[in-house]
Amino acid sequence: MKQLFLLFFFLFSISGISQTNVLVIQKLNSKFTKEIKENKRIKVWTKDGQKIYGRFTIKDSTSIIIEEKVILLEDIIKMKKKSLFGTIANPIFIVYGSFMIIAGVVTVGSGGWGAIIGGSFIIGGMPLVLIPSISNKYSIQDWEYSIKIR
After folding, report:
1. Is the pTM of this model over 0.70?
2. What stretches of the chain show up as alpha helix (H) in DSSP?
3. Structural domain of residue 34, as residue ranges?
4. CB within 8 Å of 105: residues ≥ 6 apart
């Protein structure tokens, strides 16, 4: 029993030590930092106008690799974290929110109770359209990129 306990302790300690490298994004006007682990999906806009999307790996302390392309951190002008759920769900939310806004505008025109119901559709549809469009964007004007190698 004691040997089994030591085996489990050894296995869990190895998994705790073997952590991955992370891409660190720090807000320029505060100390807020966000860490993105290696092999996560990101979309990167570079200075030469390229948009590159995919899972990234860290090459060294100044560059990352996406889709077999080496990208220097200093060449990135904007970055967006893209989860698989967001990639699938965001277009659905945007379309559903747009239908809610359109239905709200049509219903508001009928007057009376329709104006109240239509207003609630418009108010409910706006976050469904706006939040997926603006979330998880990190522009070079507001954020600083670095790599933490562990």
Report:
1. no
2. 2-17, 84-108, 113-134
3. 18-148
4. 118, 122
